[in-house]
């Protein structure tokens, strides 16, 4: 995720430098798309990256499960409803793909485990449905920072929730739907023909997502109180 963050700031810097040549920060800048923000409704799309993690709570004091994260990708649509000059309501449905590896300690198992028992690969494809409120600051030239927050529901297409197999057969199962809350910030950069909006958002799962194994003493799920998703979204929106 560190590489993704570097890419995020690099792209923002390149875009800002390119726009500065067009008087983005000059004393008397050329105001681009001056009336765009007065529209009642407008639409756009976004592309981006994500870094998903798990917050794991345990019933007993044991060594932690190691979660290895990877960088995933996002793609989606944006619909924006202007409620007031500085407040907008946004719906940003999207497709999110990610992968997390769970490494279980040897001490979780009553006897020496197989190598395959120590690792569970959690490949996730999500349909994400966030409803957000955007609070914009005053526009300065062709730049307008904003804060955003709200709630969302996530549909996990790779949950294995209906599978009759569990971890004893190598199947890690999670619940299909997850509620979340989200907070973040971004910048609207008004170019000559469109608005470019890089943003960073934190996403926090509210409920336990784990489906436990049939065996109540399962080494994979028996000592887990809850598993909740945590994620960082870096999106580049065009509208």
Structure description:
With 239 residues, the chain is mainly beta. The chain has one domain (2-238): Porin, CATH 2.40.160.20. The chain has one helix at residues 2-20, and strands at residues 41-58, 66-69, 71-84, 87-91, 94-103, 119-136, 143-156, 177-190, 195-205, 224-238. Strands 1, 2, 3, 4, 5, 6, 7, 8, 9 and 10 form a ten-stranded antiparallel beta sheet that branches. Strand 3 (71-84) and strand 4 (87-91) form a beta hairpin.
Describe the structure in brief.
8% of the residues lie in helices and 51% in strands.
For the report, how would you describe the main beta sheet? 10 strands, antiparallel
Number of domains: 1
> Helices and strands, in N-to-C order?
HEEEEEEEEEE
Number of distinct helices? 1
What's the CATH first level? Mainly Beta
**Protein structure class:** mainly beta
Layout of strands and helices, then pairs:
Blueprint: H1 2-20, E1 41-58, E2 66-69, E3 71-84, E4 87-91, E5 94-103, E6 119-136, E7 143-156, E8 177-190, E9 195-205, E10 224-238
Antiparallel strand pairs: 1-3, 1-10, 2-5, 3-4, 3-5, 4-6, 5-6, 6-7, 7-8, 8-9, 9-10
Entry keywords:
mainly beta; 1 helix; elongated; 51% strand; ten-stranded antiparallel beta sheet
């Amino acid at each position: 995720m560190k590489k993704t963050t570097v890419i995020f700031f690099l792209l923002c810097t390149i875009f800002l430098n390119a726009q500065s040549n067009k008087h983005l920060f000059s004393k008397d800048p050329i105001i681009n798309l001056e009336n765009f923000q007065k529209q009642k409704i407008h639409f756009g799309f976004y592309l981006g990256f994500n870094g998903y993690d798990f917050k794991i709570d345990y019933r007993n004091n044991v060594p932690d499960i190691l979660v290895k994260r990877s960088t995933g990708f996002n793609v989606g649509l944006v619909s924006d409803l202007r409620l007031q000059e500085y407040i907008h309501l946004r719906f940003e449905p999207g497709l999110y793909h990610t992968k997390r590896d769970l490494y279980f300690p040897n001490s979780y198992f009553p006897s020496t485990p197989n190598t395959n028992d120590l690792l569970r690969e959690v490949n996730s494809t999500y349909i994400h449905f966030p409803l957000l409120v955007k609070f914009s600051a005053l526009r300065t030239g062709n730049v307008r920072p904003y804060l955003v927050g709200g709630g969302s529901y996530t549909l996990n297409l790779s949950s294995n929730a209906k599978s009759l197999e569990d971890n004893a057969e190598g199947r890690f199962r999670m619940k299909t739907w997850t509620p979340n809350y989200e907070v973040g910030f971004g910048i609207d950069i008004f170019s000559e023909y469109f608005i470019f909006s890089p943003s960073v958002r934190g996403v926090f799962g509210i409920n336990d997502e784990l489906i436990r194994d049939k065996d109540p003493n399962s080494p994979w799920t028996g000592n887990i109180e809850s598993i909740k998703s945590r994620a960082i979204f870096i999106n580049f929106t065009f509208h």
